[in-house]
Amino acid sequence: MNLPKIKAEFILDANGKPQGRSSGDYKIRISLAGAPEDSHRVTYHLDDSYYDAIRDVNDRSTGFAEELTSYGDYEVKASIRVKDRAILTSRGLADALREAHAESTDPTVQKALRDISDN
Amino acid sequence: MSQPIERKIHDFSPYLVTARYHNKWFPYRVYVGYSYLGELAVLLAGLGLASPVSALIARASAAPVANSGTAAQSIGQLGWGAFLLLVVWLCVKIYVQQESLEKRCSLLTSYRRQCRQIEFELGEALRASDPMPELIQLKARLRDLIDRSIAEDAIVGVGVDDRWSGEWERFSSDLIARHSANWSPAPNTDRRERKEGDGQ
């Protein structure tokens, strides 16, 4: 059985540039790919520096997507709840972002990737 | 801090409000009826309802062969009703056992009671200027409770029923209206700034 995979992408503005840098953080959307059919909730465990570090998402139609901001890299953990058990998975935020924007040549996206990786 | 707190309240509401109506679940009502009627049957038997019936059956067994048709007719008038009730009773009993309703309904009752307790503690937590740490702990408790109840088939679906969405919206709005004046302003970003010497 393949483990569900955490995905992450920058939220881009109308010009294709990452949003949120002026506030010091980038706006990011995390989601989950490959969640089992009967999963009904995903709990994301973010870095302790978040005001609300534990986020429950019930909306399967969005791929259990959650929006957040970050200035740096950390390990995102997800607990996927199916009927009688929980599946745990985790992934580095920078790694997930690099995968999502691997094709991008936009310098602002490249800079955002560097900022996240370096912090 | 109001926005993250408001969002957290919206996380609680669907579960807490739906829990109030879990007693409308049809198998739960069947089980409650079965339990109460079972107790009532025992009580009536204790009061002596059973003896006239058994006396009638005993008379029919002891009756001469020539009168057996009349005796059977007497039993027929009273007995068929009782027999029908017995069949219905057995069907309900089989249903209750097959569906493990005794255990599930007991867990459901406990689930509703614990949700009421969490609802009370939620109201208390929201009085603080920064309720978030308490809300995170309460949500973890609710999450565990929901997960256990789903795994044990004690609650229907995932514990949220959209029929009550209007009510849980009102529940959230009411809590926000009552307590938001206590809360400190929301942070500018959801992630706190790094401090000097932090690893990240």
Write a concise synopsis of the structure shown.
The complex is a heterodimer of chains A (119) and B (200). Chain A is of the alpha+beta class and 119 residues long. Chain A has one domain (5-118): Immunoglobulin-like (Sandwich).
Task: Provide the descriptors you would attach to this structure in a database record.
heterodimer; A: 119 residues; alpha+beta; Immunoglobulin-like; 2 helices; globular; B: 200 residues; mainly alpha; 72% helix; rod-shaped; disordered C terminus
Would you mind describing this structure in some detail?
The complex is a heterodimer of chains A (119) and B (200). Chain A has two helices and seven strands, in the order E-E-E-E-E-E-E-H-H. Chain A is α+β, with helices and mostly antiparallel strands. Chain A has a single domain (5-118), classed as Sandwich (Immunoglobulin-like), CATH 2.60.40. In chain A, the strands form two sheets. Chain A has a four-stranded antiparallel beta sheet. Chain A has a three-stranded antiparallel beta sheet with strand order 1-2-5. In chain A, a hairpin with an 8-residue loop joins strand 3 and strand 4 (54-57). The longest helix of chain A has 12 residues, at 107-118. Chain A is globular, with a radius of gyration of 14 Å. The N and C termini of chain A lie far apart (34 Å). Chain B has one domain (2-61, 70-182). Helix content of chain B is 72%, strand content 0%. Chain B has seven helices and no strands. Chain B has helices spanning 2-20, 26-47, 50-62, 68-98, 101-125, 132-151, 165-179. Chain B is rod-shaped, with a radius of gyration of 28 Å. Chain B starts with a helix and ends in a 21-residue tail after the last helix. The chains are: A alpha+beta (119), B mainly alpha (200). Chain A binds chain B through residues 23-25, 40-41, 43, 46-47, 49-54, 56, 58, 68-74, 81, 83-86, 119, and chain B through 1, 4, 7-8, 11, 132, 136, 139-140, 143, 147, 150-151, 158, 160, 187-194, 200.
